Batch of 2 targets.
Target 1
Amino acid sequence: MAIKKLLFASLLICSMIQSSHGATKERLFTDLEKGALEITATPSRTGEGVVLAAGIDKLSITWKVSSTATKEPEFKTIKVKLCYAPISQVDRPWRKTENELFKDKSCPHKISSFSYDPTVKTAQSFDYTLERDIPTGTYYVRAYAVDAKDHEVAFGQSTNQDKTTNLFSVQAISGRHKSLDIASVCFSVFSVVALLVFFVNEKRKAKIEQSK
Amino acid sequence: MAPNHSNENGSIGSSLHGVTAREQIFSFSVEDGPSSQAIRSDDPTAKFALPVDSEHRAKVFKPLSFAKPHMRAFHLGWISFFTCFISTFAAAPLVPVIRDNLDLTKTDIGNAGVASVSGAIFSRLAMGAVCDLLGARYGTAFSLMLSAPAVFSMSFVADAGSYLAVRFMIGFCLATFVSCQYWTSVMFTGKIIGLVNGCAGGWGDMGGGVTQLLMPMVFHVIKLTGATPFTAWRFAFFIPGFLQIIMGILVLTLGQDLPDGNLSTLQKSGQVSKDKFSKVFWFAVKNYRTWILFVLYGFSMGVELTINNVISGYFYDRFNLTLHTAGIVAASFGMANFFARPFGGYASDVAARLFGMRGRLWTLWILQTVGALFCIWLGRASSLPIAILAMMLFSVGTQAACGALFGVAPFVSRRSLGLISGLTGAGGNFGSGVTQLLFFSSSRFSTAEGLSLMGVMAVVCTIPVAFIHFPQWGSMFLRPSQHEERSKEEHYYGGEWTEEEKSLGLHEGSIKFAENSRSERGRKAVLADIPTPETGSPAHV
């Protein structure tokens, strides 16, 4: 009972701390500068109906700051993320796109994060191997430009406004393992056999008891 | 029979004990002479560690003891049930990982949740019969050890369909609820059965809370050894699987079906008569009270099972908590069972002492309705502290109602006790399936709306408790029957046997039970300390 009170009190305190950051929570996606970063993501295998394999295939990501970017002096860090295309958000409210940045769940997978060097004006690129915990789905890439206060100020994405072009599909790993399968079968068989052994044994003992 | 009250010091009428010389007349008795008195040295009941009644059921509940056979049965029963709850809801806190691995939609997850509780509807029914016919030990062991393979087979799951199938099969093990309650009902006497069943049920239900902490922790540890998340969650299911096998073996080696021995031995030696399944089934189904309890339990336990499946995801998604924190909050719901359900059983017992069965029925209605009202509040709470407060109050109310209901259930029938436990238990799962299907399986309602609507439905479906009427004890709004014959417990319990069966003496167990259940008259049982003899004139004057 005391533990529960403690838990409740600590959760209360945590939520109050959260709410004291209220000012930052109302930061909206629509406030960010659109198209400030130009970014393209090229999968290692392309073509009609190609599905990339998580853990194996790569993305080649090229980015640069657009000439029309106005908030460029504020950029401190660039965060590149893998985002769900609308088709992968259907009937999955945990991937919903929200305008409030802290609530938005459409870009949960971090690709890379690095500090912004204002002296380099040309396009830079790097390779990213799809992680093994990326779920099956259709994706695009988005880069956020973050200022010194760790607030997003601008972004750019590899697809268009409606998120219909330049999407790529990923197939997740199954997570299954042969050794796991074998162990599973062994223990299952043991369970059933042990039960039968007990049952038969006891029936036999009861019969012996009766014949006495 | 002298009602047990008269043996306690200071209870009303004890100072006059023996004056009328009418005490302790048994209408029917297997043994010669009274045996519910204090233990005598040549009394066969002297071999028990706890004081027992005429059916050798314990009159005292000592939770810290492991004495054979009563307390041992209690502990084996509730721990088995606890293990099954862990297995059935093991997937719930891991859903955020599983849904990514298997590419599940909200509909898939909701349907799997429905499936996880639906299997038990049938297995709980079957378990009632199994307990009546084979005994509680085998009922429990079958449930544990035959569903362990389903738990292990999570390693094979590859898509929504197989996920649903496996959760469905794991859900069968919730039948241990019935075997656990049956086991305690044959081991403990009616006066304390509310508390005992409440503790066994409540501590078992805690498994639904513990799993919300255990599984994320196991998952985390396995990930630390280097496994990817999509493999780690599969391996995590091995832990509940192991627990089930271990408990199954313990139950078979350490447990005992009845106070006097194991069922098969007693049946073969003729001490316990074998009953016909068709009769047992008929008397359970024919009794309208069974069906009212079916609905009631559907909206106390049913609501609790649904919450076990949805609450972790609710806090994770709505309040943006981490998997770990959402698990802690969700666990608090299930852990409240530790004291909430026994409290309900205890409240039922106290109400029975004062007001008899009518008190039990009122207690049940109050607790369940209050719990449902807090559920409505939970759905409407938009800040985290309020949501947690509402959830805790809701959990106490609903879980206490579960305990109070099993203070009533053992009295509905003696002959079909197992099957009624089974049917009521099945009702719990049925209610959970219905609520999950209606409110949590589609995008029609948000989870918050679903919670409030479920609370409203629970309030409405608790009203039928007013219609449960016992001729010998009354109901919520009606007094007991004044009729000479129908106002006796023996008439109610004897009514489950035909004249032919009575002439063969098959109903003696029910008559003993009827005498022991006189305590359900409340204070009137103590004032009318002396039971009216069956024949017109007293044996001694």
Target 2
Amino acid sequence: PPGGGSGTYDLSASTFSPDGRVFQVEYAMKAVENSSTAIGIRCKDGVVFGVEKLILSKLYEQGSNKRIFNVDRHVGMAVAGLLADARSLSEVAREEASNFRSNYGHNIPLKYLSERVAMYVHAYTLYSAVRPFGCSFILGSYDQDDGPQLYMVDPSGISFGYWGCAIGKAKQAAKTEIEKLQMKDMTCRELVKEVAKIIYIVHDEVKDKAFELELSWVGEVTNGKHELVPKDIRVEAEKYAKFIGCDGRTEDGYTTL
Amino acid sequence: RFGQLSSGSDMAPDWTMKEVSTGTTIMAVEYDGGVVIGADSRTTTGAYIANRVTDKLTPIHDRIFCCRSGSAADTQAIADVVTYQLGFHSIELDEAPLVQTAANLFKASCYRYREELMAGIIVAGWDKRRGGQVYTVPVGGMLVRQPVSVGGSGSTYIYGYMDSNYKPNMTKDQCLRLVSGALSLAMERDGSSGGVVRLAAISETGVDRQVILGNQLPKWSTA
């Protein structure tokens, strides 16, 4: 048996181990841990997502292989793990949001959406004929009535609401940084810079080379529409991130104030 | 549809071959903090009054009501379906449902089955997001929100009264007087409307129902 003492209890999701674990689900979570980091933070007037998108080839077009999706006008989704699984789940989330609007005539509340998608993810942890989804994702939304909301769903099919959360390989380091923030008092504009900074801090320059920062937000600043952060704001945020995140040294090694 | 069978036979009375209808006058008015809804109480089969004390103000949820006009059976059936759907939805959401949601559910049924149904429904209630709201779903299944809405066969007689007497930002008591006044006028003129006036005021605190009997109705003529 590979690795630890999982024995013969890890071959299918329909088997418990003697100590009450479902190894297939745990292995699915390992797949998420191998992926690069994604974070989501909720502030006073919105939600900001940041994803460390590792560039595996110089031939990639800039902006391709998006890790942040639009689920509905007011809902965004940042993912980590097996990208193909994540894309399929974003379609599920889109259908749920669309059907809700069609049946009930208004925006889907985020708590309800994340519970519906989590239920779907959970269903794939019950049978031996299918494998669990190898991705976690963070959902964020903003609307007039509920304000900013942030939920995270993991491969076990559980969903929790958060003020800030991180998924992927550097999630521990990212969580430490997130905990230092007073996000409840910040606005989206301030938060964008902090999110960029955290991604730059947790990025491992030794193990992983180049990366592209994917930033998106939804809040009062965007009038409730989830969209990628405009280029000029992103560039400014990255400048702030590189300056602060790298101990005052810019990319070419010069110290500036 | 079996609503319009031959009215020719002199031997058999009307009510043996006419569909039961809530001929009706119904209305709903928004005010700051809630809504006031009202209806007459007459149900007819042709010229026979099958029920003279009908309750056409039907609760769909704690703070959402509908006013029913058209076919009694159709509107009862639709109201039952929507009550189920809205109750389920509210449990899933773990919060009180929106009036807009209830209205959309009525629209969905009324539009999908528009060829088989004859139902004119006014949905009104209070929710914490948008306060008091009135939505009208006439025959055919359109949906539109209005600050004031009138419906049923008797409504035609009171459009002028509403146009001249409704003003925005009225108080709850002004609305109650407006509704009872309008309904009395309609009941006076429309043969398919009559009986008592049923009123309900819906707000954050709950639902307050009243009945105004024939002798207590506002009088518009000295006769």
